Amino acid sequence: MKDSISLLHQFDRRLIDSLYVEAMVLADEARSFFDHRAEEHRAVLSQVDRVEFACESLKVTTRLMHIIAWLLTQRAIIHGELPESSRTDAHHRLGEAASTPAGMTARFSEEMASLIGASEDLYQRVARLERQFVGRADGALPMPTGPARDLLTRLERAF
């Protein structure tokens, strides 16, 4: 069982690392868009849509910052810089981020719509992962089961 827990921690570490890279790449794409191309996209919008564009820009940025902060916390836990109990502390949890209303992205350029969609998708995946981590930490979720886990358990018992 100890080996299967070790494997789960290795999987968690790799998952956190890959999500961190994905979040940083998306943050760089968003920064590049907002710094260099957003103005030309905003220029063709109505005054009301410009305000909506600004709000959605802030939502994208907020989602990404919450994600990155949470992932950095998870990396600190994995590397022993924070205790495992930090996963259930309210101030270490993934921050709330407003979602974009359905149909809102149709008002914006394809590039802006893509950034909104990608940030929402990443936020939802990270939120799902957080629920799993917290459930495991609270003991509410059992260790994952499946054919590979069953095989590992049988091998551990045999040796």
TrEMBL record:
Organism this protein belongs to: Sphingobium lignivorans
Phylogenetic classification of the source organism: Bacteria, Pseudomonadati, Pseudomonadota, Alphaproteobacteria, Sphingomonadales
Protein name: Regulator of CtrA degradation
The organism's place on the tree of life at top rank: Bacteria
Pfam families linked: DUF1465 (PF07323)
